[in-house]
User: Fold Phosphatidylinositol specific phospholipase C X domain containing 2 from Chrysolophus pictus.
Amino acid sequence: MHVWPFLLYKAVCAEESPSSWKTNYSWLYFLGSHDSFSYWVDEKSPVGPDQATAIKRLARISLVKKIMKKWSVTQNLTFKEQLEGGIRYFDLRVSSKPGEIGQEIYFIHGLFGIKVWDGLMEINTFLEQHPKEVIFLDFNHFYAMDDSHHFFLINRIRSAFGSKLCCVECVEYVTLQYMWEKKHQVLIFYHYPLYREFPFLWPGNKMPAPWANTTNVHKLLQFLETTLEERSRYGTFHVSQAILTPRVKTIARHLVRGLKNTLVHRNLPMILNWVKAQKPGVMGVNIITSDFVELVDFAATVIALNDLLLEEDDSSSKS
Assistant:
């Protein structure tokens, strides 16, 4: 499979960048996945600590976990497959397993997923094979974790990526040239106060990801428009979450159909049309996430929009 290269931010000035990288654009478009790790969840393990007590009690019935899986899984592709398809931003929720000996950390979305270490290793293998690719890993939800668990996880991250980790810098300095010169490939965003103790952990507020929390696609698209208008002009990245979130009554009405068949399939065409109408730029879309990223060709759309931006930039520089 062809692996599409994605670019980071503009160079600060022309003298700092190769002639092939233009300076009159602010952001390019990146594609991300929502609950990126949820392609596999363990029906045999206990329900995760991210769930309400009532759900944990109900889950003692085996059928309940099967239904939970239909609503917990938001991706079909593994990390490797997502990377090959152009995904460069990964939305990560993690947890310890209460009652388990040791400090192992797992991905979680209602049910436990694979070990975080296994996921990091899969991602690192891709990066080893593609040394000019750059990714964002956004650790934004933590469950059943005290500081010792966090230190364990942070050391795992450091062990997995080593010198590929990009230390915190002014966002506008992070260009493709900058990453290549320093041989960096990974930006880690860590939404927990311990980020202050590690230079390679970017604070969570550098990766805002406003959440519409709606089942209505029209409200979602309006929310995406509004939050783009309100986004910071400089100093942060920005995630547009193009996702619909089921209510309890949504799940109750469509128990066995699951998330994909209830909300995703029928609304993706409208969401894709919105994506096609966007432009990267200072106040434009930066990173967009969706469920089941393979169902429509988001990657081709994002690549086409980036190409258009570069063509416009090239034209303006010659005029």
